[in-house]
Amino acid sequence: MEESAEAPVCHSQRALFDKGKTGLQTIILMMCAALSVTAIGADPQRLEVRETSLKLGDISLQDHVCGPAIDLSESDGKLTVLYFWGMRCAPCLQTLPKLGELQKKLRNEGLIMIGIHAATGDADQIREFCRKQGVEFAIYRSFKAPKTFRIGTLPHARIFDASGKQIFDGHVSQLTDAIEGHF
Asked: Among 57, 70, 74, 85, which is least packed, fewest CB within 10 Å?
């Protein structure tokens, strides 16, 4: 396995640093990115669930930061969510509490929520941030995956079913519906 080659960028950061945009265009893009996260309960008719050949076993977690340590080989029979985020990504920060609530609600039914901090920040900064935000699910700082594995922009999520098969790869605005559709 090889590390993912492409570093993700937060939607709002991409808009902010796009040099071709005027100040007003940048503000509008940032507002759109923030509003997209508020749609955590997105319309199921627009739900984008893609099945691929990627398996949970193709990924290994590294640099555990906080929350319960997870051994992916023990996730058989459970729905597993990998949530890619960053401390300086406004849409990511709006989503964290909602994912924590979802984890608490469905933990006993077999949901495993794993956050992967896919941006800059050392372990102590991430740990302190998660403590202040009340994040209780597992947080890792890095992972290894096949070279074809791409995240794109933050926030991003992937869901793996009970057999370890990837069943969702997309924006977190569709995540709640994708998860609750399995319970």
From this structure: 74
Is 21 part of a structural domain of the chain? yes
- Model pTM? 0.73
Range of the domain at 100: 9-180
Q: What are residue 139's DSSP bridge partners?
A: 66, 115
Pairing of the two strands 79-85 and 156-160: antiparallel
DSSP state of 11: H
Residue 4 lies in a domain: no
Is 50 in contact with 174 (CB distance < 8 Å)?
A: no
Q: Where are the alpha helices (DSSP H) in 38-182?
A: 90-106, 123-133, 175-180
CATH number, position 71: 3.40.30.10
Q: List pLDDT tens digits, range 19-66.
A: 454 555 555 445 444 444 333 333 333 334 444 577 898 899 999 999
Please confirm whether the linkage preceding 8 is cis (ω < 30° from 0): no
